[in-house]
Amino acid sequence: MLVLGIETSCDETAAAVVRDGREILSNVVSSQIELHRPFGGVVPEIASRQHLRFIDQVVRQALDAAGVAIDQIEAVCATRGPGLATSLLIGVSTAKAIAAARKVPFLGVNHLEGHLLSPFLGHSGTQAPMYFPFLSLIVSGGHTMLVHVRAVGDYEVLGQTMDDAAGEAFDKVAKLLGLGYPGGPAIDQLAREGNPTAIDFPRSMLHSGDFHFSFSGLKTAVMYYLKKQSAIGNRQSEPRDLCASFQEAVVDVLVEKTIAAARAKTVQLITASGGVTCNTRLREKLTAACQRSGFRLLLAEAKLCTDNAAMIAAVADAHLQRGHHSELTLDVEPNLALAPA
Ligand code: KG4
Ligand code: ZN
Known about the structure:
By secondary structure, this protein is α/β, with parallel strands linked by helices. Helix content is about 40%, strand content about 20%.
């Protein structure tokens, strides 16, 4: 089955064509980062207007790159939440319009489910087999969660962040350091030459005995550290060491809690996805920890870690195969949860 996927939950306008839920024929992502950069974060009004301006040509590019005509598309899907309401609306309306015009099924997709299944996509044509149960770590700019996946659509959220998401912590600390937006890649880059043990930042909730996270205290610790350094006149404190030490604190908590959750659920496979999974140190430390503890690890490919429409089309395919589709009256859901509480 050929599925056209559309993703506009935040600041990327994306469309993709995926065959049988696994083979990516095209994956077009038009990023708005440059437009939002001067504001240090995503401005919803600007995001929505940009989606509206570019969605038609992004869809066209996805079809052209896939070498597929619109009348060959057998289903159309779009992210319906979670995300920015006015951004989601553009993708969902576009998908509904195409589905209605072409008389093919429409499906509204949960963005988090897209991240959750993305590790099984791509891998240069040698798609990894999906087997259950597995433990999924989703770490992005908006979410940090550990999910016990029993089957497609059967998700138990074991824990999530109580405050800032991991990516948000990267972005906020980068802002404190004047590194611009988004901050994750910049911190990752600087940290490569820094000493991760230079500053002993707190590993929040490491021993909380549950699978929840908290990153706002770490961000505050970085802020106080910087204030103290400037109060004692030490303006030259090494940003590379600070980035490496901050990153290590985030990564340590993510890795330890992921391994603990996988043990608690006695799964054999761990997956990781979402923008922060691009992080070099997280990939390294999670790989090493899984090897030590005897878990198989599947990391989403770097280009599928950040927001894209291929992962949305893959989810839609899995649900369409199970006989599901959405009505054209379906609304967007900015606070859509991954699973019922
Ligand atoms: O999944 P994503 O594209 O969007 C959301 O659904 O939120 O994730 C974006 C987040 C941003 O916070 C960005 O700073 C972070 O992923 N990120 C990284 C890296 N690359 C992107 N964080 C740490 N290290 C990276 N290399
Ligand atoms: Zn995302």
